[in-house]
Design goal:
The chain is an alpha+beta fold. It is 30% helix and 25% strand. The chain is elongated, with a radius of gyration of 26 Å.
């Protein structure tokens, strides 16, 4: 598709209009005569989109526009200025786009411009290739789970195929095979949604080039590409415009790539991906382009939308409301997809996810290579994002340079977050054993419940003696959230529960806290511990989301609610979050275990002892979940309700009873 500029057969009038609009969007701008301090990635699509438009239409105005930007980019002595000139993203982007422009324009390109561009591509491709060879085992050359690796090698491969440089394409191909073999099979991405939409399109482009140039079909190799739309879909906020912002996310509106949606829809026959592509390239396009903090952004992807759209793929609105991604330890559950629906996204896993963490350790011990660069992965295991009524109510920090657990909905021990945090790459050089994980996951399409327990004790400084810090999260069918945090340490500690919001919470007369975000509301009620010290205040988060502009500083203000216990060896927080005008949460009296009811929904928890005793329920289980229908249990061996034994089994069972 990309090399020959040949899309799947069928009409594509909307995509063609998009391409022509993008091809002319920059006509009022004067190309830079010297390299600006900021990134020049945008110069690539400034040339490639009009090049494709000219190839399709024959309009000489598009040819002239492409030539303007080709000459400007080709006359710059280096691609990239402030950070790794010639050896990083700027060079990768321009190699990809300008090589395609050279191929697409062919003999239509003036001879002197073609010669200049060919010379420049050979020069820059050689610089990139030599850097990749020299730096093998460090930085992006071998950072298999990182967008810089995918973009730089895709750029090198594009130039190699267009210029006939087999040495380049073979090295890029070997790297691509390794990446596909090592990416998580569940399709998740530890860098977060924004870097997913920034980097994964280049993996798709490289696969496209490989298939067309060499007849090699690796689209199903490893499983990541076939499942990664599922990950992106379930990190979409209700209403589809915004994204869940785990990881480094510049904002909540930078998550869509219509071109990538179309390519995944065409390759794997995913109707929901086709539907999302139509939405992103239509209704959501202008606001995403205007409000996104990521550049070049969604508009320059017009060439991908045109070439990757397959009109034969049916489109269908998403309906699935539950997902779990075991590699990243990411649970997502929602009440629906409409604007006013409620969503929770809850994660806990090692840096980069389980496969990356384990494989990188082997690379380190067997080769001495540093392959896990997860500077975009936050210290957020055990944290969650909560969205309801069209607003973010419990929020993440977004992008930060000095990453801290205190910026997330987590717990502090004696005021401390994770060990070795407060830096950009909080997972670099830490012990292999320092891993968080999820257990006891209940996620069923036929029920409205979601349950998981995050084990996060290993993430804290060993000097704190934290033996246990488990957070159990339950999402009810109506969208309420119940949290049970259990903590133990060798010595008495202060335990602090954190909740981050976009505006300060409001104390209510009955002890609850009201969260407001626009017209949306939720009530936070903390049943345990009794007598906790409640404080609040602003938390400033600073970020520079682009190394190409070292002086850039962006700040975001979180409003942090803190509940801190007296010093004790153990800590226990029982918390309910109820959206909108739903009935208030009440504590259930339990002889053993803990319980909360909201209306007709009852959550009974005992994640460690696994003994639940109430007036009506006796269970040996981590959880019993009731809502008027058949009960659901987690890790249960026995359930007795109102004197009737409903479950009695030797092996722990998770799921519906009866």
């Amino acid at each position: 598709m990309l090399l020959s500029a040949t899309p799947p057969p069928g009409p594509r009038p909307a995509r063609e209009r998009r391409l022509y609009e993008e091809a002319g969007r920059l006509r009022g701008l004067t190309p830079p005569a010297t390299h600006p301090l900021a990134s020049i990635t945008w110069l690539g699509p400034a040339a490639s989109n009009p090049a494709l438009a000219h190839r399709i239409s024959g309009d000489p105005a598009h040819l002239a526009e492409s030539v303007r930007w080709i000459e400007a980019a080709a006359r710059l002595p280096h691609w990239g200025r402030a950070h790794m000139p010639d050896h990083d993203l700027d060079a990768g982007w321009l190699l990809h786009h300008l090589s395609l422009a050279l191929r697409w324009l062919g003999e239509g390109l003036p001879e002197d411009v073609a010669a200049l561009l060919r010379y420049k591509l050979l020069l820059q491709g050689r610089r990139m290739y030599e850097f990749a060879v020299a730096s093998e085992g460090s930085w992006w050359s071998s950072s298999y789970w990182q967008n810089h690796n995918w973009i730089c090698y895709a750029g090198l491969a594009t130039a190699g195929y267009v210029l006939g440089k087999e040495e380049w394409t073979e090295r890029a191909k070997d790297n691509l095979g390794t990446v596909l073999d090592l990416m998580p099979e569940d399709g998740s991405h530890a860098e977060g949604v924004v870097y997913w939409r920034y980097g994964v399109p280049f993996l798709a482009a490289h696969l496209d080039l490989l298939q067309e140039a060499e007849g090699v079909d690796w689209w199903d190799r490893g499983g990541f590409m076939s499942r990664t739309f599922h990950y992106r879909l379930h990190q979409t906020a209700p209403g589809f415009a915004f994204n869940v912002d785990h990881g480094d996310c510049h904002d909540r509106r930078s998550g869509h790539s219509a071109g990538l949606y179309y390519r995944l829809a065409a390759q794997y026959g995913i109707p929901e991906a086709q539907w999302m592509g139509d939405l992103a390239s239509g209704e959501l396009l202008e606001r995403e382009a205007a409000e996104s903090g990521v550049r070049p952004g969604i508009l320059p992807e017009a060439y991908l939308e045109y070439l990757w759209y397959d009109p034969s793929v049916p489109a269908a609105r998403p309906t699935g409301t539950r997902a779990f991604f075991p590699d990243l330890g990411l649970l997502a559950a929602r009440t629906g997809w409409d604007d006013d629906a409620t969503l929770v996204s809850f994660k806990a896993g090692p840096g980069g996810g389980h496969r990356a963490w384990e494989t990188a350790e082997k690379h380190r011990t067997e080769k001495g290579w540093d392959t896990l660069n997860q500077g975009h992965h936050h210290p957020d295991s055990g944290s969650f994002v909560y969205v309801s009524q069209g607003a973010f109510l419990a929020v993440d920090e977004g992008y930060s340079n000095r990453k801290r657990a205190a910026h997330h909905n987590l717990l502090l021990v004696d005021g401390q977050g994770y060990a070795d945090e407060d830096r950009y790459h909080v997972y670099r050089d830490i012990p292999f054993e320092r891993q968080a994980r999820q257990r006891d996951v209940l996620l069923s399409a036929d029920c409205g419940w979601a349950h998981s327990t995050a084990e996060i004790a290993a993430m804290y400084d060993p000097g704190l003696g934290v033996r246990r810090l488990d957070r159990t999260l339950v999402f009810t069918p109506s969208g309420c959230l119940v949290l049970l945090d259990l903590a133990e340490a060798d010595a008495p500690r202060e335990w602090t529960f954190l909740l981050q919001t976009d505006r300060p919470t409001e104390a209510e007369a009955d002890g609850a806290r009201l969260i407001r975000a626009g017209a949306a509301t939720a009530r936070l009620r903390q049943f345990l511990p009794a007598g906790a010290r409640i404080t609040g205040g602003a938390t400033e988060v600073e970020a520079n989301p682009t190394s190409s502009t070292p002086g850039l500083r962006l700040t975001r203000t979180l409003h942090t609610l803190r509940a801190t216990t007296e010093r004790a060896r153990t800590g226990r927080f029982l918390t309910a979050l109820v959206p909108g005008t739903d009935p208030d949460a009440v504590r259930v009296v339990c002889a053993e275990g803990e319980g909360v009811s909201v209306g007709t929904e009852t959550v009974l928890l005992s994640p460690v002892a696994r003994r639940i005793r109430t007036g009506r329920v006796n269970a040996d289980a981590a959880a019993v979940l009731l809502d008027g229908g058949a009960p659901y249990v987690v890790a249960a061996t026995r359930l007795e309700r109102d004197g009737t034994v409903l479950l009695d089994t030797a092996e722990p069972y998770t799921g519906k009873v009866g």
